[in-house]
């Protein structure tokens, strides 16, 4: 596996027609794919995350193949990614998630719901939203933690939480949230709309199962990985 840091040269990207309006648009998605698309039938074998806080956008990527800057639009730094993990190890983490849940509707069809909007609607329906002393981001943080750590019921079966399945335990009191954003764009080829929400979580975790957690680091966590969600970045707690 490889870990890469790719700084986008916006002028060079524009030169080859890969304009970037931001990390939430389809062009941004295509720009990341330009590092790995070596033939038309290639399937995604990487997870990534945009960082647009600085003037020059940065893409962080974990991939099975070494990325190739065929268009000359990146300052690209790649290294082997061989994390050494131990049971009980404490790590600081940062992850961008698409916090959704699938439920069956009245027609027994599975429907995807944004957990934050679901929670907000429930509070409003109970007539309690105006009296609650928290912000939407506070609610997003609480629901994001639940999304990571809560078990779920599907067809009468209790499923492990994402954290338990991924071999780690989250210290809830350490978790902070940023950038709850609703993202919408259209695919140029067919005009189909894509809408989803993202939430950035950061905090502290403990590794319970090194092999399972290694899978999270390599493959990401949760849905919408094709559009920059799921990459979990970690560092030792000092």
UniProtKB/TrEMBL annotation:
Gene: cas6e
Source organism (scientific name): Lujinxingia sediminis
Upper taxonomic lineage: Bacteria, Deltaproteobacteria, Bradymonadales, Lujinxingiaceae, Lujinxingia
Protein name: Type I-E CRISPR-associated protein Cas6/Cse3/CasE
CDD domains: Cas6_I-E (cd09727)
Family annotation (SMART domains): CRISPR_assoc
InterPro entries: CRISPR-assoc_prot_Cse3 (IPR010179)
């Amino acid at each position: 596996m490889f870990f890469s840091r790719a700084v986008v040269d916006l002028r060079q990207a524009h030169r080859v027609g890969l304009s970037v309006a931001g990390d939430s648009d389809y062009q941004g998605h295509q720009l990341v794919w330009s590092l790995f698309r070596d033939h038309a039938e290639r399937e995604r074998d990487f997870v990534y995350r945009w960082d647009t806080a600085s003037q020059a956008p940065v893409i962080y990527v974990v991939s099975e193949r070494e990325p190739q800057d065929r268009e000359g639009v990146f300052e690209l730094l790649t290294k082997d990614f061989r994390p050494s993990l131990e049971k009980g190890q404490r790590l600081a983490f940062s992850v961008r998630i698409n916090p959704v849940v699938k439920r069956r509707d009245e027609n027994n069809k599975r429907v995807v719901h944004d957990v934050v909007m679901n929670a907000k609607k429930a509070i409003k329906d109970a007539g309690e939203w105006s009296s609650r002393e928290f912000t939407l981001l506070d609610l997003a943080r609480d629901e994001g933690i639940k999304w990571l750590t809560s078990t779920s019921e599907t067809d009468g079966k209790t499923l492990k939480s994402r954290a338990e399945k991924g071999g780690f335990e989250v210290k809830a009191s350490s978790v902070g949230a940023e950038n709850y954003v609703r993202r919408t764009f259209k695919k140029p080829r067919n005009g189909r709309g894509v809408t989803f929400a993202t939430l950035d979580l950061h905090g502290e975790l403990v590794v319970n199962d090194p092999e399972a957690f290694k899978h999270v680091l390599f493959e990401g966590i949760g849905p919408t990985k094709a559009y920059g969600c799921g990459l979990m970045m970690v560092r030792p707690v000092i």
